[in-house]
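Today's session is about reading a structure prediction critically. Students often jump straight to the picture, but the first step is always the sequence itself: look for stretches that repeat, for charged clusters, for runs of hydrophobic residues. Only then move on to the predicted structure, which in these notes is written as discrete structure tokens rather than atom positions. Here is the chain we will use throughout the hour.
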Amino acid sequence: MAALSGVRVVELTHFLAGPYAGMVLADMGADVVKVEDPRYVDEARGMTPFDGRGQSYYFMALNWGKRSIALDLGDPAGREAVYDLVRSADVVLDNYRPGVLAKLGLDHAHLAAVNPRVLTCSLTGFGETGPYARRPGYDYTIQAMAGVMDLAGEPSGPPTKAGISYVDHGGGLAAALGICAGLLEVSRTGEGRHLDLGLVDVQYSMLTYLAAWNLNAGVQPVRVANSGHPSLVPAQNFRTKDGWLNVFVGNDHMWSRMVEVLGAESLRSPVYVTRAGRTAHAAVLLEQLQAVLLTDTSASWADRLSAAGVACGAVNTLDAALTDAHACARDLVTEQPVDGSTFRHTRGPVLALSEPDPRDPPVVGQHTADVLRELGYDDERIGRLTTRQ
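Below is the predicted structure for this chain, in token form.
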């Protein structure tokens, strides 16, 4: 059996952070039922590009493995169907702004009244308390306000966002982790509870050593050219004969191994042997190292340096990363048939617990009748609910 087999998650989410959390749970075996109001479907369904059926690849990438049920949440009959679904569920996950679900009667207080064991998790931008709680908060917003954008980019350039929506993805992972821990707690206590989780909470947690530097020593990290590390040298991107190479020398032994591979006499200076020496003479060292790395290709350097135990890698384009030999060997990209065509996507983050044959990304309401029948609804009642849409 899959790790989360038998766990039912009712998902009231849209766009990225919430759907990613649900996808992770589905990938580990949970029955994730995505509830969408047909008047206000997940806006991710409208994100380009689309497949031959008009389905959004953005949506599909975040919602494979789930089932979809369409219910009019403003209609008392539709809301009652959600309550019936919650009676059969272990978890309700949402990522709407605080107050939205309360207006619909779908907040924890209402849901716990129909299922006292239900675990609810609200993944919002700023959490449900504090002066920013009612503000809209997206990944970009949190990157900016948590100080992360100010740390990224070239020293003389503007603040820069990360290349992916890592705040949303990190928040989704934290939600999945919190839900798994919450389920254990419910199994011990027999009582459900609510998890108030803000994307900003997760981002502040991820500041770790940077926050410790600032809070305890007053250190304000500054940007380093070529995505350099603020305190390790060399640890940055370097130009090569055909592109860019990322090198991260984490200790003195690794530096010694790197020097042996490169063979440049200029790098054998005794002042470079220690971390402190490399930091003190960073400007000259980086210039000398850059000159050496320009003499060969990224792939060649990566092979030679990695074989010597030096952390490095080519700065890949996205298509190069997705076809990388290691990604292929680890099956990090998979494909599944969807309506006569093939949908290729990355896998869930915990490969050892991943479902081998996930459900296809659902179209709106694809499983409405199936799910309602599981709840004991007859065809007449199902028909009344679906004809109102």
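Discussion point for the tutorial: The chain has a mean pLDDT of 97.
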